[in-house]
C-alpha cells in the first residue's frame, strides 16, 4: 500500500479511549487510514460490510457479539474475502486465541505491544502474511495440544497430502519464518519459497499462514520446542 492507496483500517474495541488512542496512532501513519470504529462485534461485522476495510483490528471481549464470533462471520462472508482480521488480546485471554485463528483471524498481538510494532503488524497482515505475537505463543500452543482436536482448515487432508519439500516448508512456517527466511534456510529463491507456501495453502484449503500454523501443530508435524 502507498500513501495514495492507504490501508483502510476498521477499529473494533468496546473501550472508547482505547479506540481513540489506536485511531490517533493509525492516522499518524501515512500509509493507513481509519475508515470506521466499532464498539461491539456486531457493529464490526456491519461496518466491515459497509466500509470495505482492508483490515479489522479486533478486540476479543466486546458486548453483543465477541471478537471471535465477529471474526468468524467476516471470514465466512464471501463478499469480505479480502478483509483481514488482526486480533488484540491480553495475556489472560490466551485461551481464546486459537478460536480466533480457527475463526479466520490472520494473527494476534497483545495490547501492550509497542505502537511501532502495531503499525508494522497492520502492514504485515494487510499484505497477506500472518502474525503471531511471540509472548503468548508457547502457552498458546500448549493449550492447543491439550484441547479437543478441531480441523484448522476445511480441507480434506493434513500434511500427509504434501510433498516432502512442502512439509519442510510448512514446518518452517509454523516456526514463524517468513518467505525470505524459509528460502535462506532451504537454499531456495524467495519466489520458490512463496510458491511452495501458496501451494500448501491451496492443498490444505487454508485461509492464510495462521491456519497453516494450526495444521502443523495439531497434526504433530511440529511440537513445542521441537520440529
TrEMBL record:
Q: Which top-level group of life is the source organism from? A: Bacteria
Q: Which residues carry this modification: 4-aspartylphosphate?
A: 59
One GO BP on record is: phosphorelay signal transduction system
Q: Which SUPFAM superfamilies does this chain map to? A: C-terminal effector domain of the bipartite response regulators (SSF46894), CheY-like (SSF52172)
Q: Does the keyword Membrane apply?
A: no
Q: Recall the taxonomic lineage recorded for the source organism.
A: Bacteria, Bacillati, Actinomycetota, Actinomycetes, Kitasatosporales
Span of the secretion signal? none
Q: Where is the HTH luxR-type domain?
A: 155-220
Transcription regulation recorded as keyword:
yes
Q: Which PANTHER family match?
A: TRANSCRIPTIONAL REGULATORY PROTEIN NARL-RELATED, TWO-COMPONENT RESPONSE REGULATOR
Q: Which GO terms describe its molecular function?
A: DNA binding
This one is known as Two-component system response regulator
Q: Which InterPro entries match?
A: CheY-like_superfamily, NreC/VraR/RcsB-like_REC, Sig_transdc_resp-reg_C-effctor, Sig_transdc_resp-reg_receiver, Tscrpt_reg_LuxR_C, WalR-like
Q: Which Pfam families match?
A: GerE, Response_reg
Q: Which UniProt keywords apply?
A: DNA-binding, Phosphoprotein, Transcription, Transcription regulation
Q: Which residue intervals define the domain Response regulatory in the entry?
A: 8-126
What is the source species? Streptomyces pristinaespiralis (strain ATCC 25486 / DSM 40338 / CBS 914.69 / JCM 4507 / KCC S-0507 / NBRC 13074 / NRRL 2958 / 5647)
Amino acid at each position: 500500500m502507498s500513501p495514495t492507496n492507504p490501508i483502510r483500517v476498521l477499529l473494533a474495541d468496546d473501550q472508547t479511549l482505547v479506540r481513540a488512542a489506536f485511531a490517533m496512532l493509525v492516522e499518524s501513519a501515512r500509509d493507513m487510514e481509519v475508515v470506521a470504529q466499532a464498539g461491539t462485534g456486531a457493529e464490526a461485522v456491519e461496518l466491515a460490510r459497509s466500509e470495505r476495510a482492508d483490515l479489522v483490528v479486533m478486540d476479543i471481549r466486546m458486548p453483543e457479539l465477541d471478537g471471535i464470533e465477529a471474526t468468524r462471520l467476516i471470514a465466512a462472508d464471501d463478499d469480505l474475502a479480502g478483509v483481514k482480521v488482526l486480533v488484540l488480546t491480553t495475556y489472560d485471554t490466551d485461551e481464546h486465541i486459537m478460536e480466533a485463528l480457527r475463526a479466520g483471524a490472520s494473527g494476534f498481538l497483545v495490547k501492550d505491544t509497542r505502537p511501532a510494532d502495531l503499525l508494522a503488524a497492520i502492514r504485515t497482515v494487510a499484505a497477506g502474511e500472518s502474525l503471531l505475537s511471540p509472548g503468548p505463543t508457547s502457552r498458546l500452543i500448549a493449550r492447543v495440544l491439550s484441547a479437543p482436536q478441531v480441523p484448522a482448515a476445511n480441507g480434506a487432508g493434513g500434511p500427509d497430502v504434501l510433498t516432502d519439500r512442502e512439509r519442510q516448508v510448512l514446518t518452517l512456517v509454523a516456526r514463524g519464518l517468513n518467505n525470505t527466511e524459509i528460502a535462506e534456510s532451504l537454499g531456495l529463491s524467495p519466489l520458490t519459497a512463496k510458491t511452495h507456501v501458496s501451494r500448501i495453502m491451496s492443498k490444505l484449503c487454508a485461509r492464510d499462514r495462521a491456519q497453516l500454523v494450526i495444521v502443523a501443530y495439531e497434526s504433530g508435524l511440529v511440537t513445542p520446542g521441537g520440529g
